[in-house]
């Protein structure tokens, strides 16, 4: 969640999906895959 610079609007809820080249398991299915992060990251 983040706020606009003018702070007049409601907070904005958003997300981001990070992608990378696929590992050997998914390589035959698709040319990219989501990045898997550890909770501490």
Q: What does it look like?
A:
With 41 residues, the chain is mostly loops. The chain has a domain at 15-41. 0% of the residues lie in helices and 10% in strands. It has a two-stranded antiparallel sheet with strand order 1-2. Pfam families: SRAP (PF02586). One of its GO terms (molecular function) is single-stranded DNA binding.
Task: Indicate the topology.
Blueprint: E1 19-20, E2 33-34
Antiparallel strand pairs: 1-2
Pfam families: SRAP
GO molecular function: single-stranded DNA binding
InterPro entries: SRAP (IPR003738), SRAP-like (IPR036590)
What share of the residues lie within helices?
A: under 10%
Low-confidence stretches: none
Strand content: 5-15%
Question: Count of helices?
Answer: 0
Structural class category: little secondary structure
Average pLDDT? 87
Instruction: Count the E strands.
Output: 2
Main β-sheet description? 2 strands, antiparallel
Which sequence of SSEs, written as H and E, runs from N to C? EE
Question: Any idea what the radius of gyration is?
Answer: 16 Å
With strands numbered from the N-terminus, the spatial order across the biggest sheet is: 1-2
The end-to-end distance, rounded to whole angstroms, is 18 Å
Give the overall shape, derived from the CA principal axes: elongated
GO molecular function: single-stranded DNA binding
Pfam family, one: SRAP
InterPro entries: SRAP, SRAP-like
């Amino acid at each position: 969640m983040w706020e606009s610079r003018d702070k007049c609007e409601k907070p904005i809820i958003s997300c981001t999906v990070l992608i990378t080249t696929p590992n050997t398991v998914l390589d035959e299915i698709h040319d990219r895959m989501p990045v898997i992060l550890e909770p501490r990251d």
